[in-house]
Each structure stands twice: as C-alpha cells, then as structure tokens.
C-alpha cells in the first residue's frame, strides 16, 4: 500500500505484527523503519517480557522511527489496565532528509494501525521517559 504523501509503501508484516501486539498480546513493542526511503518495515519486536528500557534502547540516537508500545499499569483503584502508545521518534540529531521522509509518512501509517490509544512525538529521550509514559497513560 503506497503512501500518497511520501510515496513510501507499508510492508504487510507491519500491520500483522501490530495485530499480534494489540489482540493477542504476543509482543511488548514494535519499532518500524523506513527502508531505502521506499517502504516501512518492522525493525524490532520486543518479547512480552521486555522492559521499557529494552524498548528505548532500540530507538536510534540519530535517526527517526515509528514505534508502538503496550504499556501495562494499575489505576488508582488498583485495577490492571493497558494502553497502546504510538511514538513518532524524530530526534533533533537526525538528518533533515530523514525527518522529512518520516514526517510525510507518519499520519497515514499511524491511521493504518487501528487501536492506538495514546499518540506521542518525541525529539529527545526525556520526552519518552517512563514517567512521561505513566502520566500519559492515565
């Protein structure tokens, strides 16, 4: 499926893995990258036992990525809950061309992943700290 904005396609595996995370709860996180400026593909899949630190370590310091993270938490009433986060990682240190390519594909790709509950865009690690995730989950 080609993205009209950037011309980038989306590999079928992207949505398949997302459905596994959302419905079957097989994965903790997924990172996606734009390969050869032509197609969005799955880059990393975190096992259900993976930590938030494992997830953050998969985001490159100097390049953009799309990611989803399934965050489990307890409400104030001690009820277990889960929120699926969509994170558009676009660090300040990324090349301008990369930022532009990812930004032009972001909206359509995000809409394709049906079931996202919280959206975030981050330009440095402090914007996706575990405390920030906890605040946004509630």
From TrEMBL:
**Keyword annotations of the record:** Actin-binding
Which InterPro entries does the UniProt record give?
ADF-H, ADF-H/Gelsolin-like_dom_sf, ADF/Cofilin
Q: Please list the GO biological process terms of this entry.
A: actin filament depolymerization
Bilayer-crossing regions: none
Q: GO MF terms on file?
A: actin filament binding
Gene Ontology, cellular component aspect: actin cytoskeleton; cytoplasm
| Family annotation (SMART domains) | ADF
Is Transmembrane helix there in the keyword field? no
Q: Which residues form the ADF-H domain?
A: 5-138
Domain of life according to the entry: Eukaryota
Task: Tell me which family the UniProt entry assigns to this protein.
Answer: Belongs to the actin-binding proteins ADF family.
Designated name of the protein: ADF-H domain-containing protein
Q: What is the lineage of its organism?
A: Eukaryota, Viridiplantae, Streptophyta, Embryophyta, Tracheophyta
Gene name, Swiss-Prot/TrEMBL:
LOC100839676
